[in-house]
Amino acid sequence: MNCATLTLADDGVRQVLARLTPRDRRILLLVAWDGLSGDGLAQVLGVSRG
């Protein structure tokens, strides 16, 4: 990928993230970028996995 393609991809990601609710955005980032599993995610959010 060249720099222009990465910039376009970054802009697209930002636009999609901006459309999410703050809670959904946080969940997505915790799973996708921080690599949390279902158990880890539930613990961070203070909820049961179910």
TrEMBL record:
Domain of life: Bacteria
Domain RNA polymerase sigma factor 70 region 4 type: 13-50
Transcription regulation among keywords: yes
Assigned keywords, A-Z: Sigma factor, Transcription, Transcription regulation
Pfam families: Sigma70_r4_2
BP-aspect Gene Ontology terms: DNA-templated transcription initiation
InterPro entries per record: RNA_pol_sigma70_r4_t2, RNA_pol_sigma_r3/r4-like, WH-like_DNA-bd_sf
Any one GO molecular function term: sigma factor activity
Signal peptide: none
Family of this protein: Belongs to the sigma-70 factor family. ECF subfamily.
Name of protein: RNA polymerase sigma factor 70 region 4 type 2 domain-containing protein
Species assigned in the record: Promicromonospora soli
